[in-house]
Every structure is written in structure tokens, then in C-alpha cells.
Design brief:
The protein has 2 helices and 5 strands; from the N terminus they run E-H-E-E-E-H-E. The chain is of the alpha/beta class.
Length: 79
């Protein structure tokens, strides 16, 4: 599966071009609302629970590895 996965992504800006080319696209963040917009699934997920995030990604990708993963963690998480 050629899916795009965005972690800590709420806008869908990075996912949009992938979805526009026909690739499955999902973005995960605690602020998302479990809805589809413009071909992107905005999954609500507390990313401090890595097991839950991985389960969502595996289900979305049907157990296949995604083609591309991008992460946009809050700046204070990198310090």
C-alpha cells in the first residue's frame, strides 16, 4: 500500500498532495476529529500512547508499511 501517514499533523497540508495523487492518506493528532476531508482521514489519537497510534496506522494501511511517514512534533518535544 502506498499510504501517507502524518504524525502530529492537524492541517493536512503535507497529506493533501498524496491524497490528490490517489494515495491513501491519514493524519494523527489529539486535535483531529475522525473525519475525512479532501481525501485525507483526520484520526483523533493521543500520540503519547504509541500502541494506540500503531494500531490505527496498521488498520488504515491494512498491515502493510506506509510509503511515507512525516512527523511534526511540538517544538518542546524535541528539546
Amino acid at each position: 500500500m502506498n499510504a501517507y501517514v502524518g504524525i502530529f499533523e492537524t492541517s493536512g497540508q503535507m497529506a493533501g498532495p498524496w491524497a490528490g495523487c490517489g494515495h491513501p492518506a491519514i493524519v494523527l493528532d489529539i486535535q483531529n476529529d475522525n473525519t475525512w476531508r479532501d481525501g485525507v482521514f483526520f484520526a483523533r489519537c493521543d500520540l503519547s500512547d504509541s500502541a494506540a497510534a500503531l494500531a490505527i496506522i496498521k488498520a488504515f494501511c491494512h498491515g502493510q508499511p506506509p510509503a511515507f511517514v512525516a512527523a511534526f512534533p511540538p517544538c518542546d518535544h524535541l528539546a
